[in-house]
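User: Reviewer 2 asked us to show a designed sequence for the structure in our supplementary figure. I'm pasting the structure tokens here. Could you produce the per-position amino acids so we can include them in the response letter?
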């Protein structure tokens, strides 16, 4: 589930309270909390062929991550370098995190995922979004 800033602000009191209560703490007694990006892979080359919604402007891509020792429903952020606003999601029961139909900016970028309390963060990965240019003869 992906939220944009506007929706996040509407739910900020509820989510902020949940983030404080579940700020990456797990129930497995002292195990370290962890987030790892799974898709795209580090160094991925993404093209318009990967676009999840061709009817929308830009290229939409499902960004996936997996968490360990972070409670379900914990708020998480996807941060793409040079993007003004983050994308918001939450940890699912199985620890998975899905940011669906994220509009990726073209070019070379890095991204990472962190919990809303910013106490747990994935390593940054890089990707390249290549756009196809059709030249007329």
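Assistant: Here is a per-position design you can include in the supplement:
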């Amino acid at each position: 589930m992906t939220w944009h800033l506007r929706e996040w602000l509407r739910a900020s009191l509820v989510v902020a309270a949940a983030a404080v209560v579940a700020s990456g703490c797990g129930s497995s007694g002292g195990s370290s909390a962890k987030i790892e990006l799974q898709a795209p892979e580090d160094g991925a080359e993404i093209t318009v062929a990967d676009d999840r919604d061709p009817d929308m402007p830009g290229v939409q891509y499902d960004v996936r991550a997996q968490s360990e020792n972070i409670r379900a429903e914990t708020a998480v952020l996807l941060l793409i370098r040079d993007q003004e606003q983050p994308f918001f999601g939450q940890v699912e029961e199985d620890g998975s995190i899905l940011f669906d139909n994220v509009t990726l900016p073209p070019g070379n970028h890095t991204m990472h995922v962190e919990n809303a309390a910013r106490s747990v963060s994935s390593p940054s990965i890089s990707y390249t979004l290549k756009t196809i240019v059709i030249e007329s003869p």
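For the response letter, you might also mention the following. The chain is about 10% helix and 40% strand. The first helix runs from residue 5 to 10.
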